[in-house]
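ARCHIVE RECORD
Type: protein–small molecule complex
Small molecule: uridine-5'-diphosphate-xylopyranose
Source of inputs: curated submission
Record status: active
Notes field left blank by submitter.
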Amino acid sequence: MKIACIGAGYVGGPTMAMVALKCPEIEVVVVDINEERIKAWNSDKLPIYEPGLFEVVKECRGRNLFFSTDTKKHVGEADIVFVSVNTPTKTHGIGAGKAADLTYWEGAARLIASVSTSSKIVVEKSTVPVKTAEAIGKVLKRNCQDPNVQFEILSNPEFLAEGTAMEDLRNPDRVLVGGADTESGRKAIETLVSVYAHWIPLERILTANLWSAELAKLTANAFLAQRISSINAISALCEATGADVSQVGHAIGTDSRIGPKFLNASVGFGGSCFQKDILNLCYVCESVGLKEVAEYWYQVVSMNDYQKQRFVERVISAMFNTVSQKKIAIFGFAFKKDTGDTRETPAIDVCKGLIRDGAKVCVYDPEVTPEQIFRDLSAPKFEWDRPNYSRSQSHMLENVQVVSDPAAAAEGAHAICILTEWDEFKTYDYQAMYDKMTKPAFIFDGRNILDHAKLREIGFIVYALGKPLDPFLVKGY
Ligand code: NAD
Ligand code: UDX
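STRUCTURE (tokenized, with ligand):
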């Protein structure tokens, strides 16, 4: 059996590396139009940082795992073609700012049709609006010259989270395979299930119809994001009432119907999926006339925007209503720890908010490159997922510095903002940092990871999300 995967990104790369590792008799080729990305996959510096990924790639690369730009050849030869291209939010036209832009998906489908001389199973790995399989089916059928070639479309959404991708792939809660309820559809489902069955117990491989599988992916992300917006909404109420969001979260999380996970209040959720997929869900609802349902889910995104804005306003109001010309150290730019990914990271909105008020931000992140940070702070909203987006000149950047040493970021700063929950932030010598900061020195912990009592002992004025306010912030002394 030969598998090709179109799209060598955060999903295509790690997913196919795991398939190759667990199925040594299957040849797996990951293809991409982005030559640089493929070059990096073939080097010792992979294009994405993911714990455990390099070891797996090293073991399989050249054995039964290959990365190539020769899309036509490998897709043409494959029995199963995974499509794992980006499906960003549309930036213009009907549905702009909400609907999924399926340009890359359609391009991939046209390519599959044009090079296919044998029948194939086409697997939707990308997250797509419900009913996409129907549209893709039409593109495939109408563009293939060979009448004997049959395409069977399956939906196999990916549930991995970044930073834990390899563990999630090795030991997933479930794998979902949706297909048509026809003889050939059931056969295709069986074939894909047999690939996953190499390492995943059969009871964790769920099968469903195509539309259920497509919709389950959007729904899973909407529910997960909803939990974060819910606890973040409560964090605002905690600050106003003297309650502690960690205690509230713990108390509700012990109810087995609610469960303890995904209840950490934060400066806001980020990442390439949550916002995009909820907006996509809202758009699907609107397009079938379900305005109230769309509005309901839209609130999850609104609450997230509110949380980021609330954080910025707290920093400014705590620092005597002005951050003008003040150096503010930003610890963490990635959207979560253990990844170098910055897509939709809350750090972008927080930094932009502070800079708009005149602050000079100095960013430190252990994994994100300066180039990426500059690019993110100058890109218009939703443009980050366009491969051809080139950095525009922006006055924002005059007030941004990126450093490779956290102590240098803190030196002379009026405040430190913790925006990513990197473990190393917990281990710093904050006394030494305090000594070199401008006084009063503030810490705004947007992830609630530091020892706030100890920081207050050192002399910091501490703001923690959803926690009783520092007496200084209440009374001003
Ligand atoms: P990505 O941007 O990292 O990778 C997509 C890749 O597809 C890019 O390298 C791009 O060059 C390539 N591509 C686009 N059109 C192509 C074409 N016609 N031929 C060959 N290559 C092409 O995106 P990603 O994060 O891997 O996400 C891919 C899909 O998976 C999205 O739909 C996303 O919503 C979904 N998803 C992502 C995650 C995640 O954690 N990132 C998790 C689950 C699902
Ligand atoms: C998410 C889904 O978890 C995954 O199943 C899907 O396949 C892709 O989208 P990802 O975005 O990689 O994965 O990371 P996730 O761990 O879900 O975190 C998303 C954002 O929520 C991050 O910014 C994270 O910091 C934030 N978060 C998470 C919180 O603010 N609080 C929490 O309790 C959990």
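CURATOR ANNOTATION: The first strand starts at residue 2 and ends at 6.
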